[in-house]
Structures are given as structure tokens and as C-alpha cells.
Write a structure and sequence with these properties.
It is built from 4 helices and 10 strands; from the N terminus they run ββαβαββαβαββββ. By secondary structure, it is of the alpha/beta class. The protein has an 8-stranded mixed sheet, with helices on both faces. Strands 2-8 form a two-stranded antiparallel ribbon. β9 and β10 (169-176) form a beta hairpin. This is Dihydrofolate reductase family protein. Residues 3-168 form the Bacterial bifunctional deaminase-reductase C-terminal domain.
């Protein structure tokens, strides 16, 4: 069974975006970002919530098109609908059976893109297997948290940590519930 890997950029104080979804202070280039982009090539499946998908519009993503051309997308939303939708996109309800089927059928581990509400829902249902944090050297003070309003807990086992010259540290943790 494949793993869900939550690979996410955060501030030191645990925000994945600042107020009004502002991510402009996050490290955008350098060795750590290059490592992240290289790591994305290993995934063939990406899952995300509606807000994460729509966040891509700010960066030129066309509605209904894939954010990652080499991946099959599963967007979990009750309201998202497109007139012109790529074959690489599947819109799903929040449904654990879909998540379980993806974990069984995916050829690679599954990239959980973005976070907040959807990542919190997955955490509540103990579906996140690995947490990869791109820790940015900044404090945002407010914004979108990694797991939305989830209060679920879990133990993390540090598996790898690497610091980069651009200020990023990428920490990889196994999740135990």
C-alpha cells in the first residue's frame, strides 16, 4: 500500500500561508526549492482540497487543468465544477473509501499538496503517513495552519533532516497515531 506524503512549506510558527493566503515571504528559489521540485518528479498522484487547487490560479493555473502535468489529480471538494476539465482531474467528495482505494491503486506514493482543512481531515482519519516539512526561516504570526482546526495528535519520528543554503530545512517524519 502506498503512503500519503504531506510535503508542505511552513513558517517556523507552523503557518503554510499568511493572512489572506499570502505566501510571498516563503523561500521561492535555491537549493531547497530545487530539491522539492526534484522530489515532485517521484509522484504520479496528487491529492488536494479546493482552496489549494484554487490558490494555483494566482500563479497562472487555468481552472480545470492539472497543476502538475505529470500527475493524476484528485481534488476533494463539494462545490468545485468545471466546464472544461482535463482527464487528469477527478473531483471527489471527502470520502475515506476514495483515499483508501488511491493508497491501494497508486503506482507511487501520493503527494498531499497544500493543507489546512483537507490535511486536517486526513489527520483526523489517520491517513497521513509521512510529513515532509520545508521549514522556512520566517515567523508569520497568523494565517493558515498546517492542519486547519484539527486537534488530532500523533507522534513523529524524524527520518531525515537537511539544511540548504537558501535557508530552508527539509525535515522528513514518519507519523504514528
Amino acid at each position: 500500500m502506498k503512503k500519503i506524503i504531506y510535503y508542505v512549506a511552513t513558517s517556523i510558527d507552523g503557518f503554510i500561508a499568511g493572512p489572506d493566503e499570502d505566501a510571498s515571504d516563503f523561500t521561492a528559489a535555491g537549493e531547497g526549492v530545487n530539491q522539492y521540485l526534484a522530489d515532485l518528479k517521484d509522484f504520479q498522484t496528487v491529492i488536494m482540497g479546493r482552496r489549494t487547487y484554487e490558490f494555483g490560479y494566482k500563479f497562472g493555473l487555468e481552472p480545470g487543468q492539472p497543476a502538475y502535468p505529470h500527475m493524476q489529480h484528485y481534488i476533494f471538494s463539494k462545490t468545485l465544477n468545471f466546464e472544461d476539465q482535463s482527464d487528469q482531474l477527478t473531483i471527489c467528495d471527502y470520502d475515506l473509501d476514495i483515499i483508501k482505494k488511491l493508497k491501494q491503486s497508486s503506482e507511487t506514493d501520493i503527494y498531499l499538496c497544500g493543507g489546512g482543512i483537507f490535511a486536517g481531515w486526513l489527520l483526523e482519519h489517520k491517513m497521513i503517513d509521512v510529513l515532509k516539512i520545508k521549514l522556512n526561516p520566517l515567523i508569520l504570526g497568523d494565517g493558515i495552519t498546517m492542519f486547519g482546526a484539527s486537534k488530532n495528535t500523533g507522534q513523529l519520528e524524524l527520518r531525515e533532516s537537511k539544511m540548504y543554503n537558501d535557508g530552508l530545512t527539509i525535515n522528513t517524519y514518519g507519523v504514528s497515531y
